[in-house]
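Checked the freezer inventory, then went back to the computational side. Two predictions to log before the end of the day. The first one is the construct we discussed on Monday; recording sequence and tokens without edits.
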Amino acid sequence: MYTMLIFAILGVFIAGLMIGRTPEYLGKKIEAFQMKMASVFILTTPLVVLFGTAVAVMTSAGKAGVSNPGPWFQ
């Protein structure tokens, strides 16, 4: 639900920039603080995924998984 709201705010902001009007969502103006929080929220998901991948590759189980040939070569 939060993600849909963030993308709606982002879409309204971009549309407002394209038509040259002050962006409004549900009768409220979208200001710099809302856009900063939306950008932080959108960038958080890829950072969490990249951090989790880095931790998984740095552990011994992650390193063993990379060199695993799979079930066909046993």
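The second is the one RB wanted added to the comparison set:
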Amino acid sequence: MLTPVTDGELAAVVTSLEMRERPKPRPLPASPLRLTQWRDPTPDGYRTLFRRVGTRWLWFSRLMLSDDALLKIIRDPAVDIYAVVDRGGVEIGMLELDFRVAGACEIGFLGLVPELTGKGHGDWLMAQALALGWRKNVHRIWVHTCTLDHPGALGFYRRNGFIPFARAVETFADPRLIGILPRDAAPQTPLIDPPS
């Protein structure tokens, strides 16, 4: 059965996945990239990297927040923000680990700029996320992805040991139509202007 989506909105199937056992230790994949903890990101700096990594996949949630609401999350002592940096010191990816729920680590955001997709750097970044996420007293790491994400995202998480546990349909205003993201963002997702 098809359910129409309201004019001006998008719909995505969201899959939540979890890992309840620490994986066996293994060497980190080689990479020319490095991960640096971002202790006091500014709202503008955070949003700039968030856009660079996520515009292709219509990441917009953090762009909708006021500076105060964003800072409340990204400067929370239980939230760790990391920038992925290349050899030249350019920020080309991000990792956000959220420990605000006792015993759990949510991978809030994990991604690289689109130019690095499919080059093996994601395996390195996921290995970093798991090494940093499995702290003492953490019994569960979880993440969610959706059908607007990279087509290989769900398989990537499953290959890395995550098991799906929930699925939902999310509808929301198309961020390109409300001016949060440029109209040419995510060309793989058709932009449908509502009738005037």
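For RB: Residues 121-133 form the longest helix (13 residues). The radius of gyration is 17 Å. Let me know if you want it refolded.
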